[in-house]
Amino acid sequence: MDWHTLLNTRLPVSMASTDSLLILLSIVIVLFSLYIFGNHKRNIKRNILPGPKALPIIGNLHNLLLKRKDMRSFLTEMSAKYGPVFSIQLGFKKTVVLSGYDAVADALKKTSEAFTERPTIPIIHKIHKGHGIIFSNGENWKMMRRFTISTLKNLGMGKKLMENMINNEVDLLIKELESYKGKSFKSGNIITFAVANIIVSILIGQRLDIKNPLHLEHVGKIEESFLLLANPMVLLYNAYPSLMSWIPGPHKTYIQNLTKVRNMIEKSIPEFKSELDMNEDKNLVNAFLVKQIEEVPGSQGFFHNGNLVTLVTGLYGAATQTTAITLQWCLLLMAKYPEHQRKVQEEIDRVIGAELPQEEDRNKLPYTEAVIHETLRYQSSDGAPYQTTQDITIKGYLIPKGTHVLPFLPSVLSDKNYFEKPEEFNPRNFLDSNGNFQQNKAFLVFSAGRRKCAGETIARTELFLFLTRLLQKFTFKPPPDQDTVDLTRLIGAIVRPHKTEICVVART
């Protein structure tokens, strides 16, 4: 039989043989699919992440130290050169950097389950030992976050009670500003203490006194610590902790500052216990100590003093520094750009008049909201690093479980695909063509995913009430001896203004 005859011969096929053929065909398809998938995965693994060439032992530290670049400038430059996903190496440890909204959103929104843990940062672990919320992981993080959010809600977060607490501090700030009678002042400590007293009231039910040297010292140490986190010596400590522990420098100052603040809080615990109220959440520390007493003996305890001290230190530092510095920027920007200040004041006058601004007025003040959002965007922090809990693929690159990943938030908030002229202060980024406020999906100031900032609600309320009430009463201008306001930035864990002096004039 020739091949032509064979190919055209109809062979009898039984039902059983048909099933066998289908099974065989299915096996072939599955094996072929596994081959394609495996080959694709191997190809992904072979895709070496782009990034600057790392030297033995030091990695890319020379790019920062020899060229005297801060981390933000370095990462901005690398983002422009290498794209949305690249790697850097500081000492022996590699970090994957995600740049731009699309890459960061792929990570924190689409694969949020892989971004629930923080890496161990040596200088932070040296002080906080993995306690608290910000740099803790696993069940400890879940328990502390759940407790904190629940307690903040019980203490008035998102309610009128919180508004009243904020307005009490704004009242005192307004009286202080009125005393300057049109003269210039440095907004730093004045604004910081006004904001700090809100979180301190929530934490321990007390207020700080700006004239108390001890309070001034502790506030100053926390401010300095936020700046020191970007110091080259701190980078070196995180790269070589054993070696750098023998060498003096700013990294030692950072450790000493926060250790002193922690010691102060720890020494106050017996006093807090002596005033304990088992029947009322009068403040966060009281609520924590009640949980400590109620905790079952012999169980895996979470409500121990280590968590309490770290929780208070972290909440105070994060809540005070971020909001206070944003408010300082806001007032400086109003003085720098009087046309924006005038529009906010006109909107407040038209909608609220002389009445007390309230949280519910937010939707009626679109330009004011746009200015607040643009200020947050304009001076954003770098964001916190993560350690992946599983293998993930971002933009075609396989990122293995356990990798340090930094979603570089300034690149998101200056992404030209989502913000027009991002290098400029431009409230129109949050306004539609009719002047209505519109959210921008790339506005990730408070991050995204499961470790999104727990204090976002309080921060938004504080900024809105502080700004509307201050611009209702005052106009802010450059100091008399200056034509404009200096917007030079000091780069730290938070970007703060180099100079905070402005002139405050009562509105008539």
Automatic annotation (TrEMBL):
Segments passing through the bilayer: 20-38, 188-206
PANTHER family for the chain: CYTOCHROME P450 (PTHR24300:SF302), CYTOCHROME P450 508A4-RELATED (PTHR24300)
Signal sequence residues: none
Entry's localization field: Membrane
PROSITE patterns referenced in this protein's UniProt entry, alphabetically: CYTOCHROME_P450 (PS00086)
InterPro entries attached to this UniProt entry: Cyt_P450, Cyt_P450_CS, Cyt_P450_E_grp-I, Cyt_P450_sf, Cytochrome_P450_fam2
Cofactor dependency: heme
Organism classification: Eukaryota, Metazoa, Chordata, Craniata, Vertebrata
Species the sequence originates in: Leptobrachium leishanense (Leishan spiny toad)
GO biological process per UniProt: organic acid metabolic process; xenobiotic metabolic process
UniProt protein name: Cytochrome P450
Matching Pfam families: p450 (PF00067)
Binding positions for heme per the UniProt entry: C453
